[in-house]
Please model this.
Amino acid sequence: MNRYTSRRRVLSLVPGLAVAAAASPALAGAATGGSFVVRDVRIFDGHRVMERGSVMVTGGLITEVGGLSRSSRHQVVDGGGRTLLPGLIDCHVHSFEGSRADALRFGVTTELDMFNDPSALPAARRQRRSAAKVDQADLWSAGIGVTVPGGHPLRPDWDFPRVVADTDIERFVADRVAEGSDFIKVIFEDGGPPPRPSLPTLTTGQVRSVITAAHRHRRRAVVHAEKLQLALTAVRSGADGLVHVFWDTEGGPEDIAAIRRSAAFVVPTLSVVDWGTGAKELLADARITPWLSATQRHLLQQQPPDRPGRPDFLKIGSANVRELHAAGVPILAGTDTPIRANANGVSMMIELSHLVRAGLDPREALVAATAAPARAFGLADRGRIAPGLRADLLLVDGDPTTDITDLRAITAIWKNGHLVDRTPPEQERAPQLDGH
Ligand SMILES: [Zn+2]
Model:
């Protein structure tokens, strides 16, 4: 696709913007955030829906919401028939070169990385504090997750520190914090059932020690657990959140109540157990395909290797999401990209559809992708449309608070108040990480 024509296409979808952009010095400014007004638009503020209002952005920050008290010389975007939302937050990704740009082009303005090389973290921290025009999502990261030799994730190509029997856990966690980990990710995964191999994992005592050390360092501790019993042990050990839902078996009322009592949140990542059905749906959607990079398309086309006799993880996981949500457990949206036919940004569209099928209403699914993760992870400057917050915004045709698939009809994305160019890059970059 020609860069010039596709840029024109974006602008032509926003009446008034092409003209106003030329007249507005703020939009061209690189060092500070952009300024504009979206008028007469349905507003989903991260919690509630206002059927008609306006939002003013000045210097990259949201300055007014609802009825505007001041006039301005900002460019005006007509919101008629559209919905304005906070930029989406994907609570479970693994980044690689170019992945955060892919995310941003689908309205995911913030990503939480759940296991990765910590070398990119100082730059990520600088970016997320700035209001500059950027071409990629902001990032928070666990850095290196806590696991054991031979344990999940299996990464023979990467020699990262792991916990052994005599590891000083306090020191181990302190090292992660020194590397820049924003939160601590614990891998509690014993593998199996056959033909999947069983795997060594942390002891219950080690899990508890890691969580305690994380809290001493004022870091949240989140746990990878795909099985009910491991999930229960994790929350009883003080975990702040589970970054998959358990999908080995349906939890009973006592199990669900125990998780509720723990106050832990759950990031279900149902898109990683749909075995590519969600990816097929995206690849057949004309609202999606023009904006896919070669890398996103490649990832969505992967057919995950299935296992004969595999339980229906999506069905079991969805039933657990339904019960957890009904009990009041905070549900947060996350995709686990690029694992199993998931791609950054775009797969959030499927994850939110899965959450709606599991029993959240569309507005609740949007809360799970905006205000709820901001609250759960302490991201105070984003996740809602409110005065003083960062202007990470998404404008879509229709009303995703009643039909979640309307989220796919993106009209405009702003990061720090700057309009995002959705033109996909043509070159493919292979993701490096294969575990989760
Ligand atoms: Zn993962």
Summary: Residues 88-380 form a domain with the TIM Barrel fold (CATH 3.20.20.140). The pocket of zinc ion is lined by residues 92, 94, 114, 336, 436 (CB under 6 Å).
